[in-house]
Structure formats: C-alpha cells, structure tokens
Amino acid sequence: MATKKSVGDLKEADLKGKKVFVRVDLNVPLDENLNITDDTRVRAAVPTIKYLIGYGAKVILSSHLGRPKGVTPKYSLKPLVPRLSELLGVKVEMADDCIGEGVEKMVAALPDGGVLLLENVRFHKEEEKNDPEFAKKLASLADLYVNDAFGTAHRAHASTEGVAKYLKPAVAGFLMQKELDYLVGAVLNPKKPFAAIVGGSKVSSKIGVIESLLEKVDVLILAGGMMFTFYKAQGYSVGSSLVEEDKLDLACSLIEKAKAKGVSLLLPTDVVIADKFAADADSKVVPASQIPDGWMGLDIGPDSIKTFSVSLDSTKTVIWNGPMGVFEFDKFAVGTEAIAKKLAELSGNGVTTIIGGGDSVAAVEKAGLAEKMSHISTGGGASLELLEGKTLPGVLALNDA
C-alpha cells in the first residue's frame, strides 16, 4: 500500500500547462469570526502545490470543511484564500462552487502556474455518497489527479476515491506519501524495540488499534480515560472515573493476550484524581488501586511518568495515539506533556517517533514540541485505520509505482 506513484515522479513534460485536480485537506478550525485558529493543515498542503505550480501546472484545489448539510456559509473555504495565497506566494482564485459552468470558465482562464480553490466539496451531498456522475463532473475539470488529503483517505468519497477512476495518472501528493512511508512503514517494518502508547478516553474506539499493535510491539503503554476500564477489570476500585462496563471482559482478554505474546503491557501505577471534572478541581495523587469513592482519575501520576519514561529509553520506534489525561485542563496536562517531552528527547537520540493523529497532535503542538518529532500524522481517523491494518480507499484508488 505504501508503493504508490507519487507526484515526485511527475516532471515538467507531464505537468506544464496541464490541469491538475488536487484533493487537499484544508479542514481547519475557524473561530466565530472565521479566522483560522490552527493552520497546520494549510501548511502541510503547500509542498505539493508549490511543486506543481513550479512545473507550470494549472492547479485546481478541492477540499471539504466541517460537516455541512448542503450549502452552509460558515463552512465556506473563502476564509482560507488569504493564508493560502500568502504561503504559496501566488494569488489564489476562489470559485463559488466545485462544479458547473462558472467553475469551468474559471478553470479555462487559469494561467500556467495558477491556482484555483473550489468551494467546499461537501456542499453537494453526492460527495459523501461517492456518486459516479458527481465524480465525473469534478474529474471533467482536469487532466490528472493528485490526492494529498491523508486526513480523508479512509473515506471513499467522490473527491478522494471517485475521481481517480476518471483521471490518469492518479498519484499521491508529498504529504500522503510521507504519511504512508511512516505509518505503514512503522507498522509493517519497525526498528525494534517497538513501543506504542495508546491513550484517550474510550477502549471501544481503540480496540482495533490495540489488537493490531499487540501483534507487532514489544512494549504497549495504556493510559488516558481507558485505563479505568482495565483497572476495574482487575478488581480495583475506580471511584467515579470513566468506565466502559461492557468492555471489562475485553480488557481482561487484552491483558491475557499481551502476556501470551510476551508484550510488556504497562498501565499507570498512580493516578492524579480530582473531586470533579473541572479545571479548578481539588486534586491529589493516589496509587492506581486506591481511588476513593466520589473521586475520578484525570491524569497519570509522577511514578507512572517515571516508569513509562524508563521503558521507552531502550526503544527504537514509538507510536503515540491518545493523551494520558485531560490535557485540556492545565492541571491535568502534566502526564501528557511529560510524554511529549520524553518523545522529543528520544527523537533527538535517533529514535523514530510518530504522533498518530487526533488529540496527541494537539497535545504536542500545545507543548511546542511538534518540530522535534519524526512524524506528526495529519489524519485522525485515517491514521487509526492504518494502525489497525486496514486499507484506505483513497490510497487504493491511486496508481501503483
């Protein structure tokens, strides 16, 4: 799955004067005044676009934003034009739709090296249905296809999978390529010892990942809200911490499976507990097995941080998906930040560190350590599915190298 034809395989002869339909992931957070609050994804899209315009291609950008039901002004991509233009150093044109006569006119007027941003592709319900007629209309705007939207590669939508049927070549962008190299590479062929740190609130959303990683890792660290389900499964009292009662048997079987496979499975030995779920809650540290009634665990304790750090010292590859605690509250962000710092330090010593999407990315950005990691995945759901060993429709649709 990692060996797809890449945009880097295309040169001037393939690109000059050609219209290239580029699916990017510009699904960025906007505040109520429609200002971009985090432009990571916009910056991530730049290398592929710059490469294409550098060879004189006419670039047609397509993306979704949010989950609109029909045309919804607050989900328009218009607010992205200034930042995109600034990063690319060219004036990006903006269409009012993603198909139709108006769009066709704008495409026809594009100069070599010009960039046109289409309006939110999810304004049409046919996008998520992967409607072939709609995909054909999108494809009719261009000569070839580049998919650089790893964040939606796990969805078989018209702009991520459908258009690839009608445009040749269909290739991976640089970001897509990097994601596949790291995530697929790490899972199929990691430098050992290989550790995975899985956090987040629910075991249920991470079952597939944990089961898949148990086949591959030497060390598996489980923390975040899901640890209380594991504690309760072992007969510990968990107070009013988050527990998935219907997953207790599963937790036991995962512990057994780790033993059988010789995987070192680590759960936190101590917990920071709080008297309520709030930023200003009273808190104290207790052993994992002694959470009193009426209290809830919101972070891992200092002893766990030490144990986890020591277990990571001998590793060569680490994947991290999901925070250690409620890192949105500063008081309960200590564990998550400590792990981020540890991974940054390991990266500096030549360990491959992969931050696999979602909240862990936000935590690493918040700690100001993003630059230090080997790879930060831009796709939440897509990276989870890859780590589970699933194939992604948006990747399968591309031409093989």
TrEMBL record:
<feature type="binding site">
    <location>
        <position position="328"/>
    </location>
    <ligand>
        <name>ATP</name>
    </ligand>
</feature>
<dbReference type="InterPro" id="IPR036043">
    <property type="entry name" value="Phosphoglycerate_kinase_sf"/>
</dbReference>
<comment type="subunit">
    <text>Monomer.</text>
</comment>
<dbReference type="InterPro" id="IPR015824">
    <property type="entry name" value="Phosphoglycerate_kinase_N"/>
</dbReference>
<feature type="binding site">
    <location>
        <position position="155"/>
    </location>
    <ligand>
        <name>(2R)-3-phosphoglycerate</name>
    </ligand>
</feature>
<feature type="binding site">
    <location>
        <position position="41"/>
    </location>
    <ligand>
        <name>(2R)-3-phosphoglycerate</name>
    </ligand>
</feature>
<dbReference type="InterPro" id="IPR001576">
    <property type="entry name" value="Phosphoglycerate_kinase"/>
</dbReference>
<feature type="binding site">
    <location>
        <begin position="25"/>
        <end position="27"/>
    </location>
    <ligand>
        <name>substrate</name>
    </ligand>
</feature>
<dbReference type="InterPro" id="IPR015911">
    <property type="entry name" value="Phosphoglycerate_kinase_CS"/>
</dbReference>
<dbReference type="GO" id="GO:0043531">
    <property type="term" value="F:ADP binding"/>
</dbReference>
<protein>
    <recommendedName>
        <fullName>Phosphoglycerate kinase</fullName>
        <ecNumber>2.7.2.3</ecNumber>
    </recommendedName>
</protein>
<feature type="binding site">
    <location>
        <begin position="357"/>
        <end position="360"/>
    </location>
    <ligand>
        <name>ATP</name>
    </ligand>
</feature>
<feature type="binding site">
    <location>
        <position position="122"/>
    </location>
    <ligand>
        <name>(2R)-3-phosphoglycerate</name>
    </ligand>
</feature>
<dbReference type="GO" id="GO:0004618">
    <property type="term" value="F:phosphoglycerate kinase activity"/>
</dbReference>
<dbReference type="Pfam" id="PF00162">
    <property type="entry name" value="PGK"/>
</dbReference>
<dbReference type="GO" id="GO:0006096">
    <property type="term" value="P:glycolytic process"/>
</dbReference>
<keyword id="KW-0808">Transferase</keyword>
<keyword id="KW-0067">ATP-binding</keyword>
<feature type="binding site">
    <location>
        <position position="206"/>
    </location>
    <ligand>
        <name>ATP</name>
    </ligand>
</feature>
<dbReference type="GO" id="GO:0006094">
    <property type="term" value="P:gluconeogenesis"/>
</dbReference>
<keyword id="KW-0460">Magnesium</keyword>
<keyword id="KW-0547">Nucleotide-binding</keyword>
<comment type="similarity">
    <text>Belongs to the phosphoglycerate kinase family.</text>
</comment>
<feature type="binding site">
    <location>
        <begin position="64"/>
        <end position="67"/>
    </location>
    <ligand>
        <name>substrate</name>
    </ligand>
</feature>
<dbReference type="GO" id="GO:0005524">
    <property type="term" value="F:ATP binding"/>
</dbReference>
<keyword id="KW-0418">Kinase</keyword>
<dbReference type="GO" id="GO:0005829">
    <property type="term" value="C:cytosol"/>
</dbReference>
